[in-house]
Amino acid sequence: MYPQWISRLSKASTLDSLTSLLRIGRFVPPQQRGIDPIAEAEIFLSYGKRKEALRVLLYTVKHEPDNLPAQLLLLQTYSYLLDSHAYIALAQYLQPRLAHLPVWQIITAEGRELAPRHPLFQPN
Questions:
Q1: What pLDDT digit, counting tens, does each position of 70-111 carry?
Q2: What 3 state SS string does 6-25 have?
């Protein structure tokens, strides 16, 4: 009769776990709240809330596929999360647009940290 989250609620022992339970399924995109998604993700990252930043950025990139600042911040978030597979995939997607720009040097340096043997990140 009661939703499943109520049984989990009774097991919540701290305020943090209670807060996270209440957030389940309640993601409202920053754009719908009148908030810049890049700014929100940067704030999340500055407080170490990487998964929250990831959620905002994934939503933004999905709905705004040409949003380069969101893609670059998503790449940085993958680096923070040590998600080499996602980092490589996004870097490969961005390479044709960025390979001639100075930011590509930063991307390849971070990529070498995550995937030292991957050919995409090797110096020319």
A1: 999 999 999 999 999 999 999 999 999 999 999 999 999 999
A2: HHHHHHCCCHHHHHHHHHCC
Q: Which two tokens stand for residue 26?
A: 């309640």
How would residue 30 be classed by pLDDT, with cut points 50, 70 and 90? low
Q: DSSP secondary structure string, 12-81?
A: --SHHHHHHHHHTT----GGGGT--HHHHHHHHHHTT-HHHHHHHHHHHHHH-TT-HHHHHHHHHHHHHT
CA Rg value for the chain: 18
Q: Specify whether the CB–CB gap between 95 and 104 falls below 8 A.
A: yes
- Looking at beta carbons, which pairs linking 20-24 to residues 24 or more positions away fall under 8 Å? none
Question: Tokens 């995550």 sit at which residue?
Answer: 114
Q: What is the pTM of this model?
A: 0.74
Whole-number pLDDT of residue 121 = 94
> Please, what is the Cα angle at 51 between 49 and 55, to 5 degrees?
120
- Average pLDDT over the chain reads 82
